[in-house]
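In the present case, backbone shapes were mapped to integers, as reproduced here:
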Amino acid sequence: MKKALSLSSLVLAAAASAATTQLTPSSDFVTAFTNAKSGDTLRLEAGTYSIEYTAGSANTITLAKTGTPSAPIVIMADGFAAAILDFNFPENTYIQNSYGLYVTGSYYEFHGIAVTRAGYQGAYVTGSYNSFTNCAFYENRNSGLEINKGGNHTMVTRVDSYRNFDPKKNGSMADGFASKQTQGAGNKFYECRAWENSDDGFDAFDSPDSIIVIDSWAFRNGVNVFGADSFAGNGNGFKLGGNSALANNRCTRCIAFGNPAKGFDQNNNTGGITVEQSIGYANGINFGMGGTLASGQKHTLYNDISYAGSSSDSYGSHNGSNNGWDLSVTVNASDFQGIDTAQATLPRNVDGSLQTIKFLHLAAGSDLIDAGKDIGYDYNGKAPDLGPFETGGSTTTLKSAQRARATGILKPHRYNLLGRQIKEE
């Protein structure tokens, strides 16, 4: 008669079988990806990892295993987007659902990975508790990173998604980040950038589950940089709903500029949206928040700036105060250290942080400094500044753990050189 193993014995056995594998571009990395199990770490040498393309065939890498909180499956490279997964689809060629990474499993961690030229989405996530840190998605044939069909509790930190274009519908589907439709709860984005995607920067269309976006930028989305003859991109920075679904989406310290449609777009969301300490600059409409809301719902708008939009904003029924339009201030170019948009695409530092720039940071003497309302974040001076950048220090942080728990806004996870999460105090 066989003796049953205890739970502790099973955990120890699983830990003992975990492995760290070093991969190079010449390795059989596809097999390594698909076979990695709970507790395994795949370390990728910097370089380009080419996935064979055959006309008419999908070349998706499906990741279907399940890790655990203490033993995730880690696929990592040192540095920002240091290991490039190139799926080699020719320009204007696609195959329906030929995703680059198809993440159906749970507790995968991706660090320092780039995905390009996938035949559909760069990554399509339907699993639970997966994370992407210091990654990039560009020139894919649909959205860079999409979370859908139950995908939940996805953490996206310091990720860039740009120049994704869908030839199937002339650009009307490819967003930078699409967290929408039948996604699950708990999907969050921190310090991300989405630019020059054919449709929208961030898209939360038709989902009853809310997303949180913090310290993130969306710019020049829906601009036909692709030379498409019948271009159909929408051109919104943050599309925060749609199709009358009710979701209380949130943007904190975000920037939307140069999007030809709207910077912050309610888009038929019947739920109240929070946009705080953010700025819309030189969009077609900076804030398009005037749609119908369900009974009892209101937007929440605090400490925001709207500057140089082509058309008038709409703010709808909302709570809030101390926005640029609420105060006796006139927002103009002299309020900022710089409005050179080229700074927004400077390469990230090795750790994924953004370079220090002057773009849309408030200039000394601006009447937008200390003009905000204390809504729970640290600040310098007498009161918070308007917009996402606090003068006299770095980007604002949460004021208390109590507010973090109440709103679901948490600090981005930090990782050591081995890719392991550092516990926050």
Remarks:
- The mean pLDDT is 91.
- The radius of gyration is 22 Å.
- The longest helix spans residues 7-17.
